[in-house]
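Retro notes
What went well: the complex prediction finally ran end to end.
Inputs used:
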Amino acid sequence: AQSVTQPDIHITVSEGASLELRCNYSYGATPYLFWYVQSPGQGLQLLLKYFSGDTLVQGIKGFEAEFKRSQSSFNLRKPSVHWSDAAEYFCAVGSNAGKSTFGDGTTLTVKP
Amino acid sequence: DAGVIQSPRHEVTEMGQEVTLRCKPISGHDYLFWYRQTMMRGLELLIYFNNNVPIDDSGMPEDRFSAKMPNASFSTLKIQPSEPRDSAVYFCASSTRDKNTEAFFGQGTRLTVV
């Protein structure tokens, strides 16, 4: 069975600081991995995805993620956080983006 | 494209009443998913369709829940009778394999059962 663990329920960073959100997955085959962002009252928006190839994936809004098979991880990073990045972030694993298993999410707070 | 459209955005109903949530997927997408999001359980897949046919409904919590997709452009999720514990945000998403399986989510329906 596939599963996703986001160890950090809540993270607070200062504006301009770097960010890393952790994601660990369990999947029997080569996984498809996704990061979504959800702003309050909104649906989920895809930030980036990994299917194959280069293990460092670039996404929208300046985010990137690195797939590390040996660690079963797909951590999300951003070099400099903006106040507008405050939201909830979900990591997901699956063979189809819709039929995916989602983590419990990490809420990001950005301090001025 | 307008994206995935869900209606209503908010629904407040009394316990025991029937509730119908609606979804219009993105044109050309052949997969449609219904998710439920709660604080306690996070984001759960309830059911998904491929080419209007239900493929996996193992996430549907009880027989009170039912979903249909009469055509490629419309789906409903019905709860009858509704209970307070059904209060959640319900999301519809659609995708197609032609787009590297990225899923597009609607803005959700916030359901409150009192």
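What we learned: Chain A touches chain B through 23 residues (CB under 8 Å).
What to try next: split runs per interface for comparison.
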